[in-house]
């Protein structure tokens, strides 16, 4: 979901920003300026996607009125053990 | 009011507008923790956040462009946090088991209160350790 929403918001803001500034700077310079800000604000990536997915997962648990199952814990621990082995073994 | 004139500060307004809109959409570990309601959900949020950053850390320690100092920072933050989050996980599973036993009437409320307090203790220990790994990963990125 977020993988769609983020680029969409970013694209809309870049178009709006470019239009707002193009009268003052000219179209190319405005596009460059807005692109620079967008790059500075770029928050996409695996960490952000992972946090979004986790937050949605917990919100779903809350909606269902349940706590994490042993299988959900098991999956999380397996991922952690694999990453931990890579980090400490590098 | 001249400071609010959009024509006068157009560049700043555009940058601020983009910053505010994107900041509003971003998810931080604190926002993940806030989504949880029960102690077990909170423990899951803390452990899940740890896993998200730990997986990113695993990528960074293999990246040749990341300086050795940052890799060492990541390794020590992970080494400190891992036993704490694992202990928190065990405490959460114990609460789950005791809660189930309590529902069946085979244990007491006192026992449930004790293991719940134990889980709270481990969550409070794990959160700063996870935050330390978060800082290390952000520093290396």
What is the N-to-C succession of helices and strands of chain B?
A: HHHHH
Q: In the CATH hierarchy, what is the architecture of the largest domain in chain B at level 2?
A: Orthogonal Bundle
Distance between the termini of chain B: 40 Å
Strand content of the residues of chain A, in percent?
Answer: under 5%
Q: Report low-confidence residues of chain A grouped into runs of 5 or more.
A: none
List the secondary-structure elements of chain A in sequence, H or E.
Answer: HHHH
Approximate helicity band of chain A: over 70%
- Work out the helicity level of chain B: over 70%
Total number of distinct structural domains of chain A: 2
What is the count of helical runs of chain B?
Answer: 5
Describe the protein's architecture and organization:
The complex is a heterodimer of chains A (90) and B (141). With 90 residues, chain A is mainly α. Chain A has 2 domains: 1-44; 47-90. Helices cover 86% and strands 0% of the residues of chain A. Chain A has helices spanning 2-25, 27-40, 46-64, 70-89. In chain A, helix 1 packs antiparallel against helix 2 (27-40). The longest helix of chain A has 24 residues, at 2-25. Chain A is elongated, with a radius of gyration of 20 Å. The two termini of chain A are 34 Å apart. In chain A, 23% of the residues are buried. Chain B has 141 residues and is mainly α. Chain B folds into 2 domains: 1-27; 36-140, Topoisomerase I, Chain A, domain 4 (Orthogonal Bundle). Chain B has 5 helices and no strands. In chain B, helix 2 runs antiparallel to helix 3 (39-60) and helix 4 packs antiparallel against helix 5 (109-140). The longest helix of chain B has 37 residues, at 68-104. Chain B is flat, with a radius of gyration of 21 Å. The two termini of chain B are 40 Å apart. At the A-B interface, helix 1, helix 2, helix 3 and helix 4 of A face helix 1, helix 2, helix 3 and helix 4 of B.
């Amino acid at each position: 979901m977020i993988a769609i929403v983020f680029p969409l918001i970013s694209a809309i803001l870049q178009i709006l920003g470019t239009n707002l500034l193009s009268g003052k700077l000219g179209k190319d310079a405005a596009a460059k300026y807005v692109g620079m800000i967008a790059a500075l604000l770029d928050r996409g990536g695996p960490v952000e996607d992972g946090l979004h997915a986790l937050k949605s997962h917990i919100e779903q648990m809350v909606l269902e009125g349940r706590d994490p199952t042993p299988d959900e814990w098991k999956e999380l621990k397996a991922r952690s053990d694999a990453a931990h082995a890579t980090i400490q073994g590098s | 009011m001249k400071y609010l004139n959009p024509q006068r500060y157009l560049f700043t307004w555009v940058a601020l507008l983009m910053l505010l809109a994107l900041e509003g959409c971003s998810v931080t570990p604190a926002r993940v923790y806030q989504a949880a309601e029960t102690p077990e959900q909170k423990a899951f949020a803390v452990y899940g956040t740890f896993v998200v950053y730990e997986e990113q850390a695993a990528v960074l320690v293999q990246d040749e462009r990341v300086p050795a100092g940052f890799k060492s920072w990541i390794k020590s933050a992970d080494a400190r946090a891992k036993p704490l989050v694992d202990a928190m996980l065990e405490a959460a599973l114990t609460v789950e088991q005791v809660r189930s036993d309590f529902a069946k009437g085979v244990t007491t409320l006192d026992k449930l209160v004790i293991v719940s307090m134990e889980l709270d203790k481990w969550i409070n220990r794990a959160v700063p350790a996870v935050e330390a790994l978060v800082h290390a990963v952000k520093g290396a990125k």
